[in-house]
């Protein structure tokens, strides 16, 4: 049985990845989920699989080198999928220190623990061990409105403390590949959306606010462009990179779904009206008059767009979920899981974990 160590598995993308892996492999794999349960980590995301005999949760900070090494020492880890990171740009502007600590130092701790556990006395590595570092397209900076795409060869040009910290962690992984021949890959993905996303992010925030008749805040002129990737497509790509990717390579994962932020909000409003029952009183609250333009974010990148040509050519992955269908699935999920959203927005989930793990 192959054993996966997943960091940040209680977060949005990490939890979706764990669900995907169990759907695909069932009892053929074991997953150890390591998460510090910060504000963005929620074990409710994994309620359906928490009692599986081949699933283990460990509450730990990836910056705790002793604890991380202990996990490696006590388990024969075959794969590491490193999601754990501070990821909200606004929070990085207010408090960059925690982003540098978690995203840079935490990645270094993970690399050192895996290297120590997997390395043979001659400097080679035990067979079939692989480390995958999950990163972002934001490390590449900003594209012009006129066109162009991010490729794996695009020079790094981060513009926020968040993207700078992720760029730094990418370079650490690259350095371990080059210096120690460490068996790793890096993936840089575009904006994800789907179930279990923390409601400070654009799509769940707009869904939640619209259902309550609250303002829908949009930065600047609303014309910043992002490439949107359905989270299950991302999970599939990560699995394929680990199994089919060439070690040492970077793979860009994009959705071919470029949209302006204002377009996203308008699509959400239209889709809510499409899927809500005719007798649902919240239909009366949903209006484009709720859209409110606010001062632009500092260092706000204008446009992101990934060209996933390499991963398609080398591995055979391509995005399967077009935005029109993906956003409908996402909205239906949030409508079916209103208790989950309520527990997130009122903070009850954190109170529960504080009591459980005090």
TrEMBL record:
Give the cofactors, semicolon-separated.
NAD(+)
- Establish whether keyword Lipoprotein is in the entry: no
Pfam families named in the record: GDP_Man_Dehyd
Reactions catalysed, semicolon-separated, are: dTDP-alpha-D-glucose = dTDP-4-dehydro-6-deoxy-alpha-D-glucose + H2O
Which superkingdom heads the taxonomic lineage of this protein's source? Bacteria
NAD in keyword set: yes
Keywords, ordered alphabetically: Lyase, NAD
Q: What is its EC number?
A: 4.2.1.46
Q: Which GO terms describe its molecular function?
A: dTDP-glucose 4,6-dehydratase activity
Instruction: Domain (NAD(P)-binding): give its ranges.
Output: 5-330
Q: Which family does it belong to?
A: Belongs to the NAD(P)-dependent epimerase/dehydratase family. dTDP-glucose dehydratase subfamily.
Spell out the PANTHER family in the cross-references.
DTDP-D-GLUCOSE 4,6-DEHYDRATASE-RELATED (PTHR43000)
Name-wise, this protein is dTDP-glucose 4,6-dehydratase
According to its UniProt entry, this protein's organism is Diplocloster modestus
**Taxonomic lineage per UniProt?**
Bacteria, Bacillati, Bacillota, Clostridia, Lachnospirales
């Amino acid at each position: 049985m192959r054993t996966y160590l997943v960091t940040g598995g209680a977060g949005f993308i990490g939890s979706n990845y764990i669900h995907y892996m169990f759907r695909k492999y069932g009892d053929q794999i074991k997953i150890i989920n390591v998460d510090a349960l910060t504000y963005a980590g929620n074990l409710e995301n994994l309620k359906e699989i928490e009692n599986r005999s081949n699933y283990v949760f460990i509450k730990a900070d990836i910056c705790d080198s002793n604890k991380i090494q202990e996990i490696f020492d006590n388990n024969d880890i075959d794969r590491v999928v490193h999601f754990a990171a501070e990821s909200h740009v606004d929070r990085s502007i207010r408090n960059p220190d925690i982003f540098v600590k978690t995203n840079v130092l935490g990645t270094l701790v993970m690399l050192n623990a895996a290297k120590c556990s997997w390395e043979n006395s001659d400097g080679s590595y035990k067979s079939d061990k692989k480390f995958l570092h999950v990163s972002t397209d934001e490390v590449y900076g900003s594209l012009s409105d006129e066109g162009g795409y991010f490729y794996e060869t695009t020079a790094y040009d981060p513009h926020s403390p968040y993207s700078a910290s992720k760029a730094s962690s990418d370079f650490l992984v690259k350095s371990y590949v080059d210096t120690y021949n460490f068996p790793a890959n890096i993936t840089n993905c575009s904006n994800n959306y789907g179930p279990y996303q923390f409601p400070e992010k654009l799509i769940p925030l707009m869904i939640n606010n619209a259902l309550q008749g609250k303002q829908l805040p949009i930065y600047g002129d609303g014309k910043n462009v992002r490439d949107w990737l359905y989270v299950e497509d991302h999970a599939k790509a990560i699995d394929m990179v680990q199994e089919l990717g060439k070690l040492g390579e970077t793979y860009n994962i994009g959705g071919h779904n470029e949209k302006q932020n204002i377009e996203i909000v308008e699509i959400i409003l239209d889709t809510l009206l499409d899927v809500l029952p005719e007798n649902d009183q919240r239909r009366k609250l949903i209006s484009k008059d709720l859209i409110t333009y606010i001062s632009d974010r500092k260092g706000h990148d204008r446009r992101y767009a990934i060209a996933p040509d390499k991963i398609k050519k080398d591995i055979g992955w391509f995005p399967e979920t077009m935005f029109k269908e993906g956003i409908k699935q996402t909205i239906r999920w949030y409508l079916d899981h209103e208790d989950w959203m309520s527990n997130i927005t009122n903070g009850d989930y954190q109170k529960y974990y504080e009591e459980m793990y005090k």
